[in-house]
Amino acid sequence: MMNNKLKTLGELKKSGYVAKSCKDELRDNLIDKIKKKENVFKGIIGFEDTVIPEIERAILSRHNINLLGLRGQAKTRIARQLTDLLDEYIPVVEGSELNDDPLNPISSYAKNKIEELKDKTPITWLHRSERYVEKLATPDVSIADLIGDVDPIKAANLRLSYADERVIHYGIIPRSNRCIFVINELPDLQARIQVALFNILQEGDIQIRGFKLRIPLDIEFIFTANPEDYTNRGSIVTPLKDRIGSQILTHYPKSISVSKQITVQEAKLSKHQKENIEVGDLVATLIERIAFEARESEFVDAKSGVSARLTISAYENLVSTAERRMLLNGEDKTVVRISDLQGVIPAVNGKIELVYEGEQEGAGIVAQNLLGKAIRNEFIQLFPDPGKLKKKKQVSPYQPVINWFGEGNVVDVLLLEDDKSYKKVLESIPNLSELVESFAPKLPKAEKLVMMEFVLFALAEHSLIGKNSLEQGVQFKDLLGSMFSEKDFFSDEQNN
């Protein structure tokens, strides 16, 4: 580690400082972390065996990188974490626009300064946190923005000819020398602008209004792109793509357990929410299932993707729904319920792109359908599948509950019901507690109530009992208005 208190070029030389490129810094520090078995990308979950090894190989190869993936796949987050692999401080010629290395200056300003002052040339130190530059590619980005242009005001003030290099106003890329430079959504960049990057990536040449300068820029380029952009808004031109060393495909979480870890890590909850609102494993799983169902839904545009931000926002809304109920009821603590999932609909609406059929249905209906599918599919992971029981003509463990509703009984589960009333309503349904106990024993008391409510919603989703939406909640009742035993139902099916 260099002594960042050194003030002059002479002191730097005496210290034994050896100039190192940005890519070599990344490589050397990565090697050190791998040897020490340190976690290089903290908080990046689910990429341990896929994306991260590919990124590490690209860094070891000193490659520029293109991260290709749908929205919400941590592309930008990965790019930002690469700064942790840079040296903590690097020396810079004081006043240099291009972060010139005192031992390898590239700008005319730094070269002239060193020639004039020699070992007395003042230096400053740049922290790695200042060596990350990010630019969102938009159609209005110009070559002047990225590379630079002649500055007539500078030429006039300094009384310089337009042939003098000092009249150039450098763009964001030259100013990112010795930094990590990220261009997000690369296909949005106009083709002619992408062409301007060719020589920078390969030869280090930049051309500005007739100036051809040999400036060997030292930059680690990271590009991000969404595959959908290739057809909707543009493409990465082939010669530029050819000059990017590694293209790495990102992906969504491959399992619900991984997805849950990401959501809990990223959700922004207050201390009060964390301490006083309990989110059971069942409800957390249902949140993730909504996203998994959305990625498979015929109403959702698969090419656009379903961002991990859907589950994060939904989780935050879910907790806030329970918190609002708790506050209105004057309670100190509560447990998130199945009926609280109605509060996640706004978060789902804003995070999915619908195809034509989905637009016809409407975002709210599609979101409700996704929630229903999540409940239905999670239910058969925990309890016997009603459809299979029916097909095999086996005795259904749900029949006592179904029969009770068939006798004309009705239950209202209200969204703002206090915990005591909620408990009283669920425990008023005969055999429901025993049903849950037989398939999910050892549940804490509060989570058992949520599981009992879950069974009601799931039976309704499997068309075994009826469910009506109320203005203030949900009503459960007999599906057909009269009682049918399972035996009679099967015999009617056979007669038909």
Protein architecture, described:
- There is one protein chain.
- The protein is α/β, with parallel strands linked by helices and 496 residues long.
- The protein has three domains: 9-249, Rossmann fold (3-Layer(aba) Sandwich), CATH 3.40.50.300; 252-382, Helicase, Ruva Protein, domain 3 (Orthogonal Bundle); 386-496, no CATH class.
- The chain has helices at residues 9-14, 22-35, 51-60, 75-81, 108-117, 143-146, 152-158, 191-195, 198-202, 229-232, 238-243, 256-266, 271-276, 281-296, 308-328, 345-349, 356-361, 363-382, 386-391, 399-406, 419-427, 432-439, 445-461, 486-495; strands spanning 65-68, 89-93, 123-127, 132-136, 148-150, 168-170, 179-184, 205-208, 211-214, 219-225, 246-249, 277-278, 334-335, 411-414, 466-470, 473-477.
- The strands form six sheets. It has a five-stranded parallel β-sheet with strand order 4-7-10-1-11, with helices on one face. The chain has a three-stranded antiparallel β-sheet with strand order 14-16-15. The protein has a two-stranded antiparallel ribbon with strand order 2-3.
- Strand 15 (466-470) and strand 16 form a beta hairpin.
- Helix 18 (363-382) crosses helix 23 and helix 22 packs across helix 23 (445-461).
